[in-house]
Each structure stands twice: as structure tokens, then as C-alpha cells.
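Thread: quick sanity check before group meeting

JM: Hey all, I'm pulling together slides for Thursday and realized we never actually wrote out the predicted structure for the chain we discussed last week. Dropping the sequence here so it's in one place. If anyone has concerns about the input, flag it before I start.
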Amino acid sequence: MKPHCRKTAAQRPLAACIAAVLSLAAPAAMAATTWTVNTCSEANTGSGTIGSLRYAAANAASGDTIDLTNTGCSTISLTTGGGGAVSLAQADITLKGPGKTALTIQASNDRVLSHFGTGTLTVNDLTVANGYLHPAFQVTAQGGCIFSYGKLTLSHVAVRSCRAQAVGAPVRGGGVYAKTGVFAKYSDITGNTASNSGANANGGGGGIFTYGYAVLGSSTLSGNQAQTGAGGGVRAFRDSLTIASTISGNIAMLGGGIYAQDNLNSPSDTFTLLNSTVSGNQALNIVGGAWTNAGTIHVYNSTVAFNTAGSATGPVSRYYGSGFNVNDSGAYYTDINHYKFKKVTLQSSVFSNNTSGTATPVADDFGITRFSNLNLVPISGQSNIVFGIANPFQALPGATVMRACALLGPLRDNGGLTKTHALMSHSPAIDAGNTSASGLSPYDQRGQARTSGAQADMGAYEVQQNDIVFNAGFEGCP
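JM (edit): ok, ran it. Output follows.
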């Protein structure tokens, strides 16, 4: 079931949309059967509805559940000799584990799960790890640990230490490839790699690659790499991208943390960043944090900081922001009667400590890639911090932004499910946020009350009245 956020974004508050997607359950099963896995053997053995994982995968019908809560061990290891990846031909199938720290399904010389159905693969409460996909010369590599020809839903899942490697062909998804959409909540996608060499060395999505929508709630994408492609954390092609999570420490050639471009051109295609932290991502070329060309863009109650890129400028009027960049492709102007603008709304967010350049890094927090001398990307909203803009031709409305150093603490566990940057003493973001705009969340990224003081704070972190805020330890700005 696809989250209904994209087409109703104008009518439904963004915070309510995030809450709705986090509450989604797995697709409803019709006449479902539960298959019990009672062994950690990778052999295809069993009887009735009880047996190994491969046995259940081979015999389950669409809509069934494979129950791995009582396997009697902590690891299921797949080998090439045992048949390689677990093949799931069902349209809809659910794998249910005992907890992501209690059971790991891992491989060594193939991916772990291959879902060839056009419905939804749902994975709950387990870890998928150590997949290594390396197809033959000039064959595209898709999904180092998980491949789905349809949609993928992850809940309380870890996908880690997976690799997808291609030679002379594209690579798509070091950890996860899902053709039509990805929905992940309370999950960690970490330490995965998408790499290729030779002709057609492109693609990307170190953590996640999808041609459809992506929704990430209370999750972490960290330490993923796509050094020959785009989107170290996630690469999404079209439809919509909705994030309420932490995207940190990812590396790519383009769009170190998030690359949401390609076919995202119409106003109905949306990019939403709400109660999120995008931090410490690196682009070897341009745009370290997040890069999108969606028609409608919202950044609410979020912190985009400490992202780096190798370059800030390009030919003609093409300038890039290392922290957050909007591409104006799809916005056009032919004459006074024929024009189409993109729409960007920034509310109570912090863009700070992002830099471009290698010899002498410069502050570069926000930018717009312009393909003409016309500004086709109007920006609205209020109560934001944007410290530095490398593009000399880019101006943000004075009512929308404050040009100040945010004085952020290091990325760390400040409570809640994901890491954040605390606001240090004297931060201009404290009690300076917006409290009235539609769509703002009543909670910060940690789940703490959004307004704790005279007024809400800017960014993903709300200083609470009983917090101890230190004068030392914060990070200055370039």
C-alpha cells in the first residue's frame, strides 16, 4: 500500500502526513497462511507449513507470512552452494523476525533477498547483512542485499554492510533496490556500497535506489557510498520523497546524502524534509547534502549541516549549494503567458556549516541550479537560518532567512531514535522559529515538545527548559 502523501500535500499538514506513514501496517493479506521457520539451515527442507527459510519462500503463496521468530539461532547464512539469494516469487510476501538484534540473514557471494513479484515485499524485525552482488561484465547490479521488482516495506530492520558492484554497466542500490517504491520506518541502512567501473559507470544509491517513491520515517541512513554515482544515502527518480529521519556520513560523486532528481519535474512530484537531520555527507563533485528537482519542495523543522562538496560552481549560471540544492529543470519560461515555476517552502529550518571547495572551503549552505538567467524557483516561508551562499547571484528573501551562524553541537545521540545536532548556548536558532505556519510538527525530531520556551526553535532539535546548554563545544561556521 502506497502512502497517500504526494497528491494530498496541499490539503494535509506535513506533520500529519509523516504520522500517517509511520502508522502504516503491512499490506492486508487475503486468506493468508503463516509459514514457520524452525531451523537456520539454508537447505530447502520442510513439511507442511514448517521448515527452512528457503522451503517457506518456495512454497508460500502471495499474501502469506514467513515467521522467523523461533528459528533457535541468531544467524542464517546463505552460500552460493546452497542456492545463493532467497528467491521470493510472490506478489506480496512478509518476513517476520524476532528483532533486528536477534536475527541476521546474511550472504557472502550473492544478495540476500530477491523479490520478483510486482506487489510488496515486507520485512519486519530482523537484520539483512553482508550481501555481495557482482554480476557478469556489462550486466547491471541491482540491490546488494535486497532486490524488489515491486515495493519494499521495512519496519525495525537493519540493512548493513552490503555491496553491489558492476563492471561496464550501471549499479543501482548498494543496500536496497526497489523498483516502484520504498517505505522504511524505525530502520537503519548503514555501511552499504554501490560501485562500478568502465563504460556506463553511473547509477548510485549507496543505501537505497528506487525508480518510484521513498518514505523514510524515524530511520537512519549512514555510512553508505556511491562514489561513482549519485545519492550516497538514497537515489530516488520520481513521484515523491518524504523524509523524517537522519541522513549522515554518506558519500557519492553527486548528492552525497540525497539525490532526488531525474524525472521529478512536475508540481505534483514532491520533496519533503520534516524533523530531519542531513549532516556530514560528502560529494566528491557537487552538492554534499541534498539535491532535488521536485516540483514542490518543503523543508520544515530540519537541520542541514556539515555537508561538504568538491565544487560549488559550474558553467554559465549553474551554481550549486553544498548543503541543499534545488535544480530548476522542469521550470520554464517562453513568454509572459507561458511559464511554470517550481515552489519551495522553507519553515523553521537551519542550513549551516556546509562547505564547497577543496583548497579553501567556503560556506555554501543553499543554492539553485539555474539553466537560464531567469529565477524560476520562488522561495517562501519564514524563520530559517542560512549562513552562507556561495552563488553570488543567488538571493533569498530577507523575511525568509536569517544570515547567522547556528552554533550547533556535534551530531550525536541527544535522545530519541536518531542522532541530532543540539543548539548550543547563544544559538540564534533558539526561540526564533515559526509557531504558526501550517504543517509544522508539535514535536522535534527526538519526540520532545516542539515549543519549550517563549517560542519554537529553528531546526530539528528543540531546546527543552530543563536542558543544560553549554557555552563551549559548539561548532563555529566557516
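AS: nice. Residues 288 and 308 are 5 Å apart (CA to CA). The radius of gyration is 22 Å.
JM: adding both to the slides.
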